[in-house]
Amino acid sequence: MKRMRSRHHRSGGGGGASRGNNGQIPLNRNHVFESNGPDIRVRGTAQQLSEKYLQLGRDATGTGDRVQAEAYFQHAEHYFRILNAMNQAAQTAQQERAERQRAYEQGRQERRERREEPGSGDVEEHGAADREAQPPVQETPRPPRGRRPKNIEEPSAE
């Protein structure tokens, strides 16, 4: 039995922009579109297609074909809107990167300040008055390792 294809089926080989992100066109300036214009097929980036359809619209206006010119101008506007969406997404991404960088630098500065403030555990940073205020630590002499002290009696094996 032959498989039936739905009306909107597209093969992987081409036939328009791929729409992988929730039906959205990938926002990449270098993305190549295949456009089926009113009477021609044009291929290129959104910038190139917008310029091409604008030129075709001007040419059609010059020849007196207002209907064809309007169709070209509508296609040009479509790709112009895609270009604006790409620019806006790039600007938003740049602002987000700048905000993350500011937050990173601020956290880094706060960590640096915490390390430098007194009382962080560095003895060298305390003044002589702090050292004098603390009672001296009494050390008890320890016997050398590997030997037993002479004053300890060994238990007898009785």
What does it look like?
Helix content is 47%, strand content 5%. The protein is mainly α and 158 residues long. It has a domain at 33-115. It has a two-stranded antiparallel ribbon with strand order 1-2. A hairpin with a 4-residue loop joins strand 1 and strand 2. Helix 1 runs antiparallel to helix 2. The longest helix has 51 residues, at 66-116. It is rod-shaped, with a radius of gyration of 39 Å.
Question: Layout of SSEs?
Answer:
Layout: E1 33-36, E2 41-44, H1 46-63, H2 66-116, H3 128-133
Antiparallel strand pairs: 1-2
Brief overview:
Strand 1 and strand 2 (41-44) form a beta hairpin. The chain starts with 32 loop residues before the first strand and ends in a 25-residue tail after the last helix. Helices cover 47% and strands 5% of the residues.
Strand content: 5-15%
Helical content stands at: 40-55%
Number of strands: 2
What does the average pLDDT come to? 77
Task: Calculate Rg over CA atoms.
Answer: 39 Å
- List unreliable stretches of 5+ residues: 9-18
Number of helices: 3
Distance between the termini: 103 Å
Shape: rod-shaped
Structural class, from secondary structure content? mainly alpha
What is the element string, with H for helices and E for strands?
EEHHH
Sheet having the most strands:
2 strands, antiparallel
Please state how the strands of the largest beta sheet are arranged side by side: 1-2
